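Supplementary Note 2. Why include the ligand at all?

Several targets in our set were suspected to adopt different conformations when bound, so apo predictions alone were not considered sufficient. For every target with a known small-molecule partner we therefore ran a joint prediction. The input for inosine 5'-triphosphate is given below.
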Amino acid sequence: MDGARRTRIFVASTNHKKLRELMELLAGAPFEIVGAGDISPPLPEIEETGATFDENAALKAQAASLHSGMLTLADDSGLEVDALGGSPGVLSARYATDNNKNASDGANRKKLLFALRDVSAPARSARFRCAIAVARGGKVILTSTGAVEGNIIETERGTGGFGYDPLFVPSGFDRTFAEMSTSEKAAISHRARALASLKPRLVELILTLS
Ligand code: ITT
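The joint prediction is reproduced in token form.
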């Protein structure tokens, strides 16, 4: 068990708020978490050329595990809006730009509200999806996915979370993710669901590696 405790896992996200959620959801497991800010040289930009969240999570985990030399976990996530045919989907972080670079969360939300300006409340169904991949030496060894259904409201509400959280009300609730506490979001989020099934497998893997 002592060996397992010393095992380090690199959580390869350059999105600070996403990274914080991942670290909180992984807390308590018998390994040391290394964030993207803790490695040198810093993690270079990894091109997200996949057509699916699963493909992009794998691309990020593979490249970052080669860069870090550590067991590495990557998350690719985003919002699918039914009235927009599943957009912004894998382009969620880049929705409001046309140069393939990430836009600000505010610009992305503004573009989404504009795209849905003529869509009535019952037709504003959406879901967050999260794909997680764990890789070592450039090879993916564990994967997991999670989703949470909900609706896109017409005006932003709340200041917590990040990304599209002020616009997303999960099904069965009347508050947005941005109006919930960290622990409320962590009980039902797409990221929490993906990690719930991955975390025990990751712990088992680490115990066999150490
Ligand atoms: P890394 O690739 O470095 O992890 P990123 O922000 O570029 O950071 P993604 O490519 O996975 O990550 O894009 C995720 C985007 O989807 C994110 O920027 C948000 O706009 C949105 N998103 C994902 N999870 C979210 C959540 O829990 N709440 C709100 N928006 C979320």
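The domain at 2-209 is CATH 3.90.950.10 (Maf protein). The chain has one domain: 2-209. Comparable summaries for the other entries are listed in the accompanying table.
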